[in-house]
Design brief:
The protein is mainly beta and 434 residues long. It has a domain of 182 residues. It has 3 helices and 34 strands. It has a 7-stranded antiparallel beta sheet with strand order 27-28-29-30-31-32-33, covered by helices on one side. Strands 10, 11, 12, 13 and 14 form a 5-stranded antiparallel beta sheet that branches. A hairpin with a 4-residue loop joins strand 20 and strand 21. The longest helix has 17 residues.
């Protein structure tokens, strides 16, 4: 009722504000300076924005009062539309594009779901038609979006009539190809070309050179983990493999599939390669029925243990882009919340930098962090900050009479010197890769 009661005056104000915010203070978006060091976030109305890490230079990229450019370069204001909701903004590796999920409720036949590719330089966008989506892949999420290394092809997961399905789309021409179907389904792009390793049900498959055709090769079988992992340069892969007695982590050379086994792992494990070296971080725990990890170890590519980084309950971790640090989200039992911590992988003392309650979308990222780490980075490109969404934890002695606030976007200083910076209202934020 409130939305329907908005006046024409409000429409004019919003359009004018959008024009001023989008163009008067616009960052240099030339091809030589493509959206370096920007945060994309979505607010509670399903509108996507980008902003600098200090909260300045905000630009609206989608939604109700979005202002675009016509073919002649003139500014064209689009009318308010509260029946359209955007979610899960995802940066291309080169920072030139955003992919977002779009739900349009205006059709009497039911919601229309699509993917929107936004050129962040020009502001122009194009829709990728839906593929007969029948449900969500996660709460508030009709797709899981993950760009290929070439910043041209976009992979996505969608729930279709035949089940959870993996697709690849050429964002230049809109051509969509189906890769595989099954559940659960997790995957990682290779470092070079259009190759990916896929964990679908109990099977691990390798798809090589998808631009030349779709043909998967079975590598192994295991059920006790989620996302397999390509190293940054694509020369190695990692996945779990089941034996008659146990489960082991396999580090595999991509060219000849030669394997090195890393033993002594719990059945529920998560692992990711360093972005800057051939180190791999492995999180696991002794009780496979528990979703909380209790140790995080660093291994070298030959399977030797280098360091035990964390020995406490935690739910997620993320490598910094320079490979020097790992941030993890521990359990704040005293305040029934969570806590961001950061530590140098070479063994310096850890820093606790933020106690919070995650937003709904942020909790989804944390719950499946080993997949989302490849598509939605919380780290700034220079490895000095983190961006998160949620609410600050309020100590019990200060909670009487307090009304919970909505989720906010916070920028965290990983050195712990500066206080968390509140930059916007929003349910999800992700930093550009460059």
């Amino acid at each position: 009722m409130y939305r329907m009661a908005l006046s024409v005056a409000l429409l004019s104000i919003l359009v004018l504000a959008s024009c001023l915010g989008r163009y008067a203070g616009r960052t240099d978006l030339s091809s030589e300076n493509v959206m370096v060091n920007r945060i994309a976030y979505v607010d509670s109305l399903g509108i996507v924005y980008t902003v600098s890490g200090d909260g300045t230079g905000r630009q609206q990229m989608s939604g109700s009062s979005y202002v675009g450019t016509g073919s002649s370069g003139s500014v064209m204001a689009q009318s308010l539309n509260f029946e359209t909701f955007h979610s899960w903004p995802t940066w291309s590796p080169d920072g030139s594009k955003l992919a977002v999920s779009r739900i349009d409720m205006s059709d009497d036949q039911g919601p229309s779901i699509s993917i929107v590719i936004i050129d962040v330089i020009s502001g122009r966008s194009r829709n990728i038609d839906d593929v007969n989506i029948v449900g969500m892949v996660a709460e508030n999420s009709p797709h899981y979006l993950y760009w290929a290394p070439d910043s041209k092809h976009l992979s996505f997961l969608a729930s279709t009539r035949v089940g959870l399905s993996l697709f690849i789309v050429d964002t230049d021409n809109g051509d969509v190809d189906a890769i595989d179907t099954g559940a659960p389904l997790y995957y990682s792009w290779g470092g070079e070309g259009l190759s990916m390793i896929v964990h679908i049900g109990p099977v691990i498959k390798l798809f090589e050179n998808l631009d030349l055709g779709i043909s998967g090769k079975e590598l192994s079988r295991a059920a006790g983990f989620r996302a397999p992992a390509f190293s940054k340069d694509g020369s190695k892969m990692a996945y779990l493999s089941e034996t008659d007695q146990d489960v082991s982590l396999q580090i595999v050379i991509s060219d000849d599939l030669k394997e090195v086994s890393v033993g002594d792992l719990g059945r529920s494990s998560a692992f990711m390669w360093s972005p800057s070296s051939n180190r791999i971080a492995v999180a696991d725990q002794d009780d496979g029925r528990n979703s909380v990890f209790n140790r995080l170890r660093i291994f070298s590519a030959d399977g030797s243990l280098e360091n035990i980084l964390v020995e406490e309950p935690f739910i997620a971790y993320f490598w910094s882009p320079d490979g020097r640090r790992i941030a993890w989200v521990g359990i704040d039992s005293e305040n029934q919340g969570f806590q961001w911590n950061v530590k140098d992988v070479n063994g310096s003392s850890s820093k606790s930098i933020f106690q919070f309650q995650p937003s709904r979308d942020q909790l989804t990222v944390l719950s499946f962090f080993d997949q989302y780490a490849y598509s939605n980075s919380p780290w700034s490109p220079d490895s000095t900050k983190l961006v998160v969404s949620g609410t600050k934890t309020i100590p019990f002695e200060q909670r009487n009479g307090h009304t919970p606030e909505g989720a906010r976007i916070y920028v965290l200083d990983v050195e712990g010197i500066n206080d968390p910076l509140d930059i916007a209202e929003g349910s999800l934020a992700t930093w550009s890769w460059n």
